[in-house]
Specification:
This protein is α+β, with helices and mostly antiparallel strands and about 230 residues long. It has helices spanning about 80-90, 150-165, 190-200; strands at about 5-15, 20-25, 25-35, 50-55, 65-70, 75, 100-110, 115-120, 125-135, 135, 140-145, 165-175, 180-185, 205-215, 215-220, 225. The two termini are about 30 Å apart.
Length: about 230
Amino acid sequence: MKYNNTVNGKFIDRPNRFIAHVNVNGQIETVHVKNTGRCKELLLPGADVTLAVSDNPARKTKYDLISVLKENLGWVNIDSQAPNTVMREWLDSAPEHFPNITLLKPEYAHGSSRVDFYLECGKRKIFIEVKGCTLEIDKVGYFPDAPTTRGVKHLHELIKAVDDGYECYIAFVIAMPDVMKVLPNRATHPEFGEALDEAVNAGVKILYLPCDVEPDELSVKQGIPGDEA
């Protein structure tokens, strides 16, 4: 995916989860943060950031913060909507893991929630739940960077779907360079790690999707099926 209209700036601060202050050509702008995670190791004062210009002139904030340059790593995409977009693009490219897709539906209702993607490949009936990973420590990705009860619920839904006969995946879209695998962030949210262990033991498979990242672009580099986290 590529953003159509972007500007560069310098990060100043983040008063709350939803907004930040950014210096854009000497003007202090209040911008929308498209990621409610902590991002503490990314959003540091003076960090280079990229903003997407909103196409809604009536909106209070005219910019969305989409990427940040992390020292000794490179650009990291923190747009929480981007992982699903690049996953859809990857599925549309007919990847070898899911050949001959005959049906593809996003935001598919199943049980008490919605799964990011439902697809059929011949007789295979598949659910894929997508998670974007932006937290890196020593070239290893970790998820989540903040507690996520929603993420735990999604894993439990996938476990139920496996019991119902579906092929299920949790896909980690790694929105940063040079990181190939993701581990559960047990220190921040042990319940997610426990739920992921339970899901893997129940038959849920893990996909790691490393990405090529530019300030205004994100695309899947390759998909590596994982076993256990």
